[in-house]
Amino acid sequence: MKQFTKEFIFGTATSSYQIEGAAFEGGRTPSIWDTFSRTPGKVLNGDTGDIACDHYNRMEEDITILKQLGVDSYRFSIAWPRIFPQQGQYNEEGMAFYKKLATRLVEEGIQPAVTLYHWDLPQWAYELGGWINRDVVTWFMDFASVCFQELDEVVSMWTTHNEPWCASLLSYHQGIHAPGHTNLDEAIRAAHHILLSHGAAVHFYKEQFGGKKPIGIVLNLGPTYAMSESINDQLAANNCDGYLNRWFLDPLFKGEYPTDMMNLYSKFIHNYDFMEDGDLDLISIECDFLGVNFYSRSLVEFSGASEMLYKGGYSDLPKTGMGWDVVPETLHDLIYRLREEYTDLPIYIMENGAAYPDVLEEDGQVHDIQRTDYVEKHLHVVADLNEQGMNIAGYYVWSLLDNFEWAFGYSKRFGIVYVDFETQKRYLKDSAKRYAEVIQQRSI
Ligand code: IFM
Prior knowledge:
444 residues; globular; eight-stranded parallel barrel; binds 5-hydroxymethyl-3,4-dihydroxypiperidine; alpha/beta
């Protein structure tokens, strides 16, 4: 039996585009995901977030579920195009939705953990160059400052960005996420401007706004292992680590980009003059915590055919419905590495969970044994890490609800609560019931 302290935060997480729906309500204008999901071939089955879980209209019902689970905190993100439907045009109605949500959570004793950016860039900002245009930092600051102004009183913690790797490399280099570009030069510019906007927002919040609540950033991280001891496979693992992890960790915690990756990228990037003097000082500004989204690890081997000189290797370990290996013990390696090489700040696991093809039984039950096991195993590792003094301050299950899983549409169910997308009825899966029990007992 492992114990969690009474200060430890148990939560669940979601994001605006994935659950809200109401794409045309409350003065919202399209984001890049509205455009992308309408582009043939980009999202499975042509699914869109137009309705999603209709959370915008079912907020009360969803808060009731959170109450039932007994979570300490609920993590959600703010849709930028609800707040600024056009450049410079503030929309109070959009803000009212988040004010009500955060206020209601507080009334129910649930701490709102707010993410400013979880990938729904307004389409107007994209048309002005999006994350490739350095001016995006100013637009982001307009958005961030009004959120601080209007919500700080009720928000418990702020995160600037969720998974900048996805918003830059997956979106501008691999083309799998919106806006679907395939250009490394653009991706590295986008990543730089995302990190810069993070630094600018933290600086503003702390220096000019009083910085009363903890603020940080959330990275998707995973340890990287080579398929063999060969020099080539070791190089592959190093490159994968640079591409996924170090490209974000190094500037944030060391104030520099990794030189080996700059050299590797220079084949595709003409110059780095978009990185201006002072940028890295701002990017590496001290935060209050590090958010980590952990799902799996990377196992790679050398590939001369790939730009980054690596490709995924095969393992016969159990996999989630995303095809990701279930490897909870590797969270241990990741956290030890973060502690040794990067930071002493409190770490929050801001997302962890698994998609599986659930079955809704006639009696309304969903016996998601594999997800329950996945969450339990990861909670065990978190408890172990805390026994070893690793200061993991909280754990958020991804996700509260089945929702729009980006390029996979509604085909992948990550929720601990089942959503029937025809009726919008919610059903607590067994994993939700088990999670509620763990929270209640504060032990596993
Ligand atoms: O659904 C996503 C989420 O938006 C960001 N982190 C990973 C999740 C599962 O793929």
